[in-house]
Amino acid sequence: MGKYFIFGGILTLLLFCGCQPKVQKKKQVIAFSQCIGSDAWRQTMLEEMKRELSFNPDIDFLYRDAHGDNNVQINQIRELVKQDIDLLIVSPNEAEPLTPIVDSVFQRNIPVIVTDRKTSSGQYNAYVGADNLAIGKLAGQYTRTILHGKGSVGLVTGLSGTSASIEREKGFMQQIEDAATIRVNGVIQGDWEKNKAYSEMRRHIDQMAQNDIIFTLNDQMAMGVKKALDEAQIKKDIKIIGVDALPGPGNGLEQIIQNKMFASILYPTGGTEAIRTALAIINHQNYRRENILATVVIDQTNAELLALQSDKIKQQQYDIDKRQEFITEQNKIYRDQKSVLNVVVVSLVLAVVFGGISIVVIKSNWEKNKHLEIQNSEILAQQKQIVDMNSKIQQAAEIKNNFFTNISHEFKTPLTLIIAPIEDLQLRTDLTEEVKEQLSRIRRNAKKLQRLVSDLIDIHRISKSKIKLHAALVQIDPFIQQITASFRPLFKKNRISISYVNKTRLKEVWMDEYLMEQVLSNLLSNAIKHTAASGRIEIILEENNFKDYFYLRVMDNGLGIAPSDIEHIFDPFYQGASSRDGSGIGLAYSKQIVELHHGQITVSSKTGHGSIFTLRLPIGNNHYEPAELVKFDNAEKSPMQQQDILDTTRTVKDNNLSFRSNTSKSIMVVEDDDEIRDYLRSLLEGDYNLFLAKDVQQANSMMKTHFPDLVITDIMLPDGSGMDILKDIKAFYQTAHIPVILLSALANEETMMEGNKLMADDYIAKPFHAELLRIRISNILQSRHQLKEKYSSNVEQFDNAQAEQVNENDKRFLNNLAAIVESKLSDQRLSVDGIAGDLHLSRVQLYRKVKHLLDCSVSEYIIERRLKKAKSLIAEGLTINEIFSSVGFSSASYFASAFKRKYGQSPSAFKKELDKK
Ligand code: FRU
To answer: Which helix (H) or strand (E) covers residue 51, if one does?
Structure first.
């Protein structure tokens, strides 16, 4: 991470350096206070200054024009000083009034350059301008030369308080006074202005017009004098000499060339020099205090030349300006390009930095990846080892489990063979009490072992996931009531009250009825065992606020469970002090069943006060896998009909019913003797589901709802004869297939003959041999099963050869069924209800009968017929598209998949095979 921070730091620094504007140095400020800015000479001065400043863009320039007013100029200087100027250039209007303010500026250590005119104190850093005294003298000498030492001159002065006027006049007068034959005839004041000079000239025209030469202290006033002379139409050739000789239209130089003025003393404006001196001062370079500009007399002899030079300079100046503009432009481009370059450089640096970071990151990632790859391959190797180990463990577990299951099964047979003879022995009347008691103990413990073995097999099946859920909608109230009813004798015996309250809106819930019955039975039998006489057991059905779970609570007020036992109570084989199970398996088994239902079982208990076992199960069926749900389709059972079927097969552990499993065959036993009935029950309940009837009436009512696979009936019954039961069974179309064994002490030929006539399937005399009975039962059911196999695999070939084993009624039934199904084979809506209606049977009766005779469901039978028909149509050469709808399939694909499932190859493959033959 550290390196990223370093990179981040560098980056920030670069960005900071690249993008932060440079700290701006305060620009230096040069201020220029001009006494009057309107005339050409001073405008030229200003232009020169600006031009010079254009080479120094870092300098700010402040310019103020006092319009010839001393006070204005004083105030302007004050205002400029306040602006924190670095240097003041001043051209004072009049020397005296301006001296204090200029001195104060100087005394503030603000450099002062005086230009053209001066203050009277001389307190300044530098002076830039011509020597006005010298100019006056030059003008005097020139006058003397022109006049050849003899004549008269007039003088036009500037503003009286200005140094330029004073000095020029002084210098001129000195020269004139030296020449004795030249006299000064008239001095007028023009205040530097053309108009003032003109008006003064007019006032004194007579006097002034007598002169040979009139010297005006600048060219502007010379033009006023000329105008006045011209207006007065003075014929005399009066030569006018001025000062400035400024080039440009209308200025002195042009006046000379046009002969309107005789001569002018060149007086440079000094703008350029003033700025150069100023820059030297503020840059702390060497500079001269007195910068006296050169001067010369300009007249006809050199005016043209000067004008040319001036034009040339102007042209050059223009070029310079252009170049300056170009440079400015280039500067701008340069600055822009510099900015772009800066951005590019910063970007480049960033790219390099990021590139560097990327390389470092990529390298580090590469290293990490390499490391991960190594780790990964190590993990994969470990995984493989684990998988190998796991499969070895699984194999070992499988071997162990199989051994376990086989051993458990092996236990069953000897146990049954122990119990049956004991029960046989118990029936004997010649036993002493002691022997009876011992037999009873042996039987009790053998039974206990038998239950334990069954539990072991069940729990084992669950743990191996062999038990699959067959969840269906179950009517919850009847379900619970039936289970509690089966415990009623025990409740009665122990004088325990039982109640069931449904506090929910639920009428039906999704569960595997068979498995859940075992859970509830287990909880109830535990509760009974641990509840004292006169105790109370309550079953309550509740649901949670979200209505997505229901709670089935079994509460007792019995002994309760010790806290030390509670956490182990659902462990297999746990037998604590207050263990609930005889074997310790029941609750573990129940827990597994509840978890198979995606629910939980919990317990809360207080010793001496009782226990509450709570099943928490999801409402609805979304939590089940499709394979865990009982499937329904048009030709199959609806949930309610399924319920009907379940109800018909439902046998609970009461006196009349004994349920083993859904797949076990069922036997109805009709026997009035309680002991023999119980004995038969104990003999058969391990292998079959049993319906136990005491008399003809009970037997008849059971036959209406249950369709046993076999009936064993005594002949002498309290309310009639077993022969009647046999007769009824064989007479009815719906029940004729059920084999009947007569069991009777009436072992005479007559009775046996009667039985045979009524088509009894076997006859066993009392007292019977238990194993013999079991073998006989098994043989009959086996032969029925073989017959069914034969029959269902080749229904249409059913013929007389088999008729001897299937009675007439069954034959008729099967022929009718085949005829109905065959006639409606192309009807996609062919349904179990429709067929049952055509055969005048209930749906349940049809289902049971087909199951019994053909060992398949009605819908399986229909599909089989359809596929067989399809097979024959393929053989006839019809195409698959022609066939599928004619045998009642809704689509070719559904047909193809059903065909393939049945025959192991697709219809087209089957056709190809046929074509080859
Ligand atoms: C311009 C001017 C010039 C003259 C100078 C004297 O204002 O009158 O013509 O030479 O000032 O200060």
So the answer is: helix 40-54
Going by alpha carbons, the residue nearest to atom 2 of ligand 1 is 192
DSSP reduced 3-state for 218: coil
Query: Could you identify the atom of ligand 1 that is nearest to the CA of residue 41?
Result: 1
pLDDT of residue 574: 62
Over the stretch 484-502, which tens digit does the pLDDT of each residue have? Answer: 877 777 788 788 999 999 9
Quick check: 46 and 37 in contact, CB under 8 A? Answer: yes
Same domain for 653 and 595?
no
Closest C-alpha residue for ligand 1 atom 12: 164
CA distance 819 to 838: 11
Query: Please, which pLDDT band fits residue 640 given cuts at 50, 70 and 90?
Result: very low
For the ranges 139-148, 506-515, 545-554, which has the lowest average pLDDT? 506-515
Q: How many angstroms does the Cα of residue 257 sit away from the middle of ligand 1?
A: 21
Query: Which of 341, 350, 347 has the alpha carbon at shortest distance from 10?
Result: 350
| Percent of residues, the chain, with pLDDT higher than 70 | 86
Substitution candidate for ligand 1 out of 116, 131, 169, 194 with most atoms within 8 A of CB: 116
Q: Which of 628, 657, 674 is the last residue of a domain?
A: 628
Q: Are residues 482 and 624 in the same domain?
A: yes
Q: Residue for token digits 């499937």?
A: 631
- The pLDDT, as a whole number, for residue 207 is 95
Judgement on whether residues 807 and 774 belong to the same structural domain of the protein: no
DSSP assignment letter at 629: B
- 597 and 741 in a single domain? The answer is no
Asked if residue 682 belongs to a domain, the reply is yes
What would the two tokens of residue 384 be?
A: 């493989």
* 241 Rama class: left (phi>0) / alpha (psi -120 to 50) / beta: beta
- Is pLDDT at 549 greater than 90 in this prediction? yes
Q: Are residues 732 and 747 in the same domain?
A: yes
Neighbours of 123 (CB within 10 A): 16
The two tokens of residue 698 are 């009970």
Contact 637, 836 (CB under 8 A): no
Average pLDDT, the chain: 84
**CATH number of the domain encompassing residue 570:** 3.30.565.10
Greater model confidence, 657 or 11: 657
Q: Are residues 669 and 531 in the same domain?
A: no
Same domain as 255, residue 135: yes
718 in a domain, yes or no? Answer: yes
Residue 864 belongs to domain spanning: 800-916
Q: How confident is the model at residue 806 (pLDDT cuts 50, 70, 90)?
A: low
pLDDT band at residue 61 under the 50/70/90 scheme: very high
Inside any domain, residue 33: no
**Count of domains observed in the chain:** 4
Q: Which of 740, 773, 793 is the last residue of a domain?
A: 793
**How confident is the model over 814-864, as pLDDT tens digits?**
878 888 888 888 888 888 888 888 887 877 778 878 887 887 888 888 888
704 shares its domain with 621: no
Res 166: pLDDT: 95
Q: Between 12 and 752, where is the model more confident?
A: 752
- Checking phi first, is residue 261 left (phi over 0); if not, alpha (psi -120 to 50) or beta? beta
pTM: 0.42
Q: Which residues contact 716 (CB under 8 A, 6 or more apart)?
A: 672, 722, 744, 745, 746
* CATH label of the domain that carries residue 875: 1.10.10.60
Main-chain dihedrals φ then ψ at residue 895, nearest 5 degrees: -60, -50
pLDDT tier for residue 575 given thresholds of 50, 70 and 90: low
Task: Name residues contacting ligand 1 (CB within 6 A).
Answer: 36, 39, 41-42, 116-117, 158, 162, 164, 192, 218, 220, 243-244, 267
Query: Residue 738 burial (CB < 10 Å; 0-12/13-18/19+)?
Result: buried
CA of 320 to the centre of ligand 1 (A): 27
Phi, psi at residue 63, to the nearest 5°?
Answer: -125, 130
| pLDDT recorded at residue 649 | 34
Across-strand partners of 553? 540, 614
